[in-house]
Amino acid sequence: MLTQIKKINPVYFDDKTESVLSELEKTQKEFWNLDRECAHFLNMLIKINKSKNVLEIGTSNGYSGLWILDALKDTNGVLTTIEFWEKRQSIARKNFENLMPNSKVIPKIGSAVVILEDIYDEIESGKKEKFDFIFIDANKKEYVKYFELVDKMLIKGGLILADNILSHYEKVEDYVEILFNHKNYQSQILDFGAGMMLSKKI
Ligand SMILES: C[S@@+](CC[C@H](N)C(=O)[O-])C[C@H]1O[C@@H](n2cnc3c(N)ncnc32)[C@H](O)[C@@H]1O
């Protein structure tokens, strides 16, 4: 009975966007996309945080990116998104151009750790601003390494959302331990979808 209650708006986007998102959801497993409930939450969180500068680690075909870009319309913000699989990144770019033609996206192709080190150098040399929202959704075994790098690139008060915390707990356990014991972060695991961990830098 309770499972039949809708938890998010059944209709939110215009017809074209809705139809592309629904089409992408048919291949959700193949492209390892967020489910709609998590994507909707990600979108709301970015709006609530009034984020302007978002980093995504794990672009895939751009499904979550579309939800991020929709949220960034409010602030005219920028999405930097990393993916090492060129084919996926090119599908993502097409999806962004098709549905969010006026959005500001900086797609980065390559290994996340290497790209993050490059981005940090850009920030250090004053060529790029720090991020106010970071979405981690790539190689689960590298979450700790991602955190060590992105911690330096996140403004105070910024948020980190990490996916697959409950679905891949054995791989991300160290990440959870570090965040739960970190004096500069307030964190909570959200028990829906694949289980996401939300952390606020204090
Ligand atoms: C879970 S999927 C991302 C799904 C996407 N955020 C969404 O919800 O639409 C993870 C993506 O990260 C990419 N990836 C995995 N390890 C990576 C790494 N070390 N560097 C860059 N990309 C990586 C994979 O190719 C895959 O497309």
Spans of 5+ residues with little confidence (pLDDT < 50)?
A: none
CATH homology superfamily: Vaccinia Virus protein VP39
Q: If you average the pLDDT, what whole number results?
A: 96
Structural class: alpha/beta
Main sheet specs: 7 strands, mixed
CATH topology grouping: Rossmann fold
Description:
42% of the residues lie in helices and 22% in strands. It has 202 residues and is an alpha/beta fold. The radius of gyration is 16 Å and the shape is globular. The N and C termini lie far apart (40 Å).
Topology:
Elements: H1 15-25, H2 28-31, H3 36-48, E1 53-57, H4 63-72, E2 78-83, H5 86-99, E3 104-109, H6 112-124, E4 131-136, H7 143-150, E5 154-162, H8 169-180, E6 185-190, E7 196-201
Parallel strand pairs: 1-2, 1-4, 2-3, 4-5
Antiparallel strand pairs: 5-7, 6-7
Helix pairs in contact: 3-4, 4-5, 6-7
Bound molecules: S-adenosylmethionine.
Short description:
The chain is α/β, with parallel strands linked by helices. The protein has 8 helices and 7 strands; from the N terminus they run αααβαβαβαβαβαββ. Helix 3 runs parallel beside helix 4 and helix 4 packs parallel to helix 5.
Key phrases:
202 residues, Rossmann fold, binds S-adenosylmethionine
